[in-house]
Amino acid sequence: MSALAGQDQELPQPPPPPRPTLQEVTAAEDRIEELSDSEWESQDSEAQDSDTMATPKITPSEYVRSVTIPIQDKLATGTTEVQDETLEAVLPFLQGNPNDFELNMFGLPTLRKEAHIKFLKHALGRYPSNFAAMDAARPWLLYWSLQGLTALGHDVSEYGERVVSTFAPFQHPTGGFGGGHGQLPHLACSYAATLSLIIVGTPSAYDSINRRTMWHYLGRMKQPDGGFTMCPGGEEDTRGAFIALVIISLLNLPLDLPPDAPARKTGLTTFLDHLGDWIGRCQTFEGGISAAPGNEAHGAYAFCALGCLSIMGAPASTFNKYLDMPRLLHWMTARQSAPEGGFHGRTNKLVDGCYSHWIGGCWPLVEAAGYTNIWNRNALARYILAAAQFKKGGLVDKPGKRPDAYHTCYNLAGLSAAQWRFAYDGGVEVEGEVGKGDLGAAFCWRVEGEWEDQRVWGEGDTVRVVHPVFVVPWGKAEEARRYFEEKEGF
Ligand SMILES: [Zn+2]
User: Fold this and answer.
1) Model confidence over 145-161: pLDDT tens digits?
2) Which domain holds residue 69?
3) One domain, residues 76 and 170
4) Active-site residue flag, 327
5) What is the pTM (predicted TM-score) of this model?
């Protein structure tokens, strides 16, 4: 029975039929319908009766037919038109295999690790002159590539010395990292540089970071209202708050503001003063979290806000203290596109592979705060495997787009969030006792194992665990923190 027909009694008028563009991409007999609960159950039990690992329970086409498109109104706007075009572009990949990729036992493309590794290694190489405009983003290019490679299981130790020597001149004498030699420092560059060096994880990589000047630099970003700017006089947003706490926590910097921090003049004494309240003010009427108070809720800023709160303390404590969680969950659940399965970042926006992480990565954090898993991990994995893999390697925003290191990194991080089950052990003895000092909350995570329920990926499609808060390979954050905890002073 059609889900739309089933809702007739509750609606004042029958919902409109799909718009023409949708009718073109789905034959009448394939029109997207939702199976009733009983149909689902009978199909499920039949599948379980003959359950073998070699037999998919549901083919990709059957899956797509089982997913309801959210009810749409008749008003055609620029927004609805690009949504229809997006669906038209994505559906062939969800239903079939236009790239002729090798398929896993669930009829979905396998994760083409070797092709993606080749793509990312290329991204760490030389760039043509037209990339000059990306010069200030060099720290990001390194981080995205290194993180993506490690998620694919590739050993990046071959890059260790080059990463250290590359970043050395990026570090500013007054603290923090810029985008290149002689460039002014910026929190975004400092974040990408710090994480890259922690991924390398050698003593020379750790010691290449000037922690004392970094502490002073972060102190200059702290604002009287509790937030952080991205650079002196720059924008104050949740990225700044997240990045500052990531760096303080990983490098085990003092929580007290440095004596020269301007915010001290307004009575603030620590990096955490007013911070939770400031993050809380970024939650919008929709329930999501924006860059700064008064802005529109956005997936990437939401991840930064939740990541920041996850470093400030146990998620169950900080999330509930500073956020309206039911409203946040309501907003988050609405960010998973159907039937695409991937996420979009804002209301009425299009599915995009990077939100596999920005929204997908929010879910382990809210689950750690005690909220039930109410997202569809398997649908996200379908989108990533079927629609986000570029034919020649690398991952993309959506079919038709070119791959880049950014979308490759964050599709893979999102796949980790979908494939792995995490638990938060706040208050429990931490392995090796790392993270006992200030801002140690994000070192209390545990990997419980792989997600199994109706999973759609084979063994070869699994990525390495990505730390849910720090977005580095599992274990690397702990190694860095331990190294800096064992160091005396700066
Ligand atoms: Zn994107």
Assistant:
1) 999 999 999 999 999 99
2) 3-82
3) no
4) no
5) 0.88
